[in-house]
# Entry
Amino acid sequence: MAEPCCRSVLHKTFSFSRLGHIFSVLGEEIWPRPIVPLFSQATIHRSLELFMPTKILAILLLFALPIQAKTRIEAAYAAGELDLETALIYQVLSVRAPDQLPAMYRESGGPAVCGTPHLVQAMSAAPQLSTEYRARLGKLMTRRTAQHNLLSPSGRFRVHYDTEGHHAVSRTDSDANGIPDYIDLTMAVLDSTWVLEIEQLGYNPPPSDNGLGGGDEYDAYVVEINGSYYGFAYPMTGGATTTSSYLEIDNNFTDLNYKQTRGLDALRVTIAHEFHHAIQFGYYAKFDGSWWQESTSTWMEEVAYPHIDDYLQYLIHFLGEPQRAVNSGVYQSLHTYGSAIFSHFLDERYSRELNRLLWEEVGQRKSVHLDHFDRIIRQVEPGGLGVAMGEFAVWNYFTDNRHRGSYYAEGDKYPTVPTRDIAIAAEAVVRDTSLINATGSVYLRLQPQLRSGGVNLFIDASRGTWRRHLLLIGPDSVSVQLVSEPTIRISGWDQFDEIVLVATAAERTGLAYQHLFTAQFDPNLTDPDAPAALATLLKPNYPNPFRPGQHPHTRLAFDLAFPSIQTRLSIFSANGDLVRRMDLGARAAREGYEEQWDGRNAAGHLVASGIYHLLLEADGTAAKRTIAVLRD
# Structure
């Protein structure tokens, strides 16, 4: 069956604050929190002395190691136990030849990841480092010599493999065609991946290596890989904006470190992931693009094989730290792989082609600055990246047991983002201060717990641009409000299970934007009929349950507290499929709007029994309820 688809002139007292200032001016904020804890001052001095000032940005990016989960090599470099060149060579050895790595630097345990960032980092540094370093790196990056090579059925790939020795694949040949089954499947997956990513999704083919692997075909090598890595895309030109490449993938995916996905499914998603790196290298191959490279390659696994769900293992490392910038993980950080959820959001909320359009813009601009993301996103979202990040933060709340059908299709499988729970007692004023990086978010949650009364909220942020959404979540309803005023009054708050303020720093660069929040309980705010925060109110449908055989329709009633230019009612199935949409156009601010649904989908057929989700959208705000349909 076919597969689916010189030395620095800087003074030696160079300060941490100056280092942070350089990155702020250059416009790429890449650390998850203030830089001081990351490196000793000696480390920065030792590193900066190696290079010309014109290379500062490119080299400093090499030191953007994540705070959590440093490798032993990274930790030894940060402690001054290894020089930069040795650390980079050891990182390549960890990918290419782990048995040659000193035992004290070998890793064990942890989820397997892509080894490409290690190789891109080492190659990106090569033009600024010594001749000796480049010679050592060249030897390590030399292509392997395999015992066999075959062209895939499409003729687009040359697959290199062994049948004897350390790198041998299983000789099992069920169809007796003289080719190991593992190689047959590898070629089929490669061919189907080309069809999907290039012919169907419209990406450019990867740059040619001009026959270095034995022909003009793209080369893939099947080898025994250290189980810490699924595979690699090898960039062939160090420091270049674009480069040709070749792949190495594991010969069986049975090592213990392949925990989430193993065997033939691991082969499938690895090819989808690593070949996407090969494609990306034709747009932009520099190391500062690593976060976007990994985000979209991890997303591409799910596009190609939606049933495998390998990407789920990384999401906790993104959703668990919502205050971090979306692009904060330029290195081998699991946050980088977890940022695949951003690519999923762009795909599901706007269009699948948006990720490709962003790669085309990055390739044209030769930069991954978020200004370029904003420019392209404005084609589908007039408010640009800031507005999209605010909505992204809302989507990220509705996961796991909070999942709603109109958000991520697989959101019920995702972990939850942490909230800052605000405990309100009596009429005391409760304050909260949060520090958030550009594009990061914070979730401030109140739980009324059936206490009558209401709450006054005050929000203030003197620095930066913000997007704030108020989530009013009841037993069978959700209202999402865009908040623009600093003061919000919510009456009759006991009608809600929880009230969540989602605050997103809608900036493209910068660290530690401060968000201030004050809440005060007022027992006298008991009128649930006029909550000032409710810009839209979607009332319960009637009848509910709705029996299409007995009732001609069910009534969909709502109020608008403000005029709406674009008003829409949508009905979704329990798994998130759109069933019916009613575009209602411009509506004035008033109570008592009513529409009717006859229980039929867009094609005119009666829907099946089940739970359906009703979504009201009115100029950037939304409210949700559920409808039960019963058919005889």
Observations:
- Residues 19-111 form one domain.
- The CA atoms of residues 150 and 606 lie 53 Å apart.
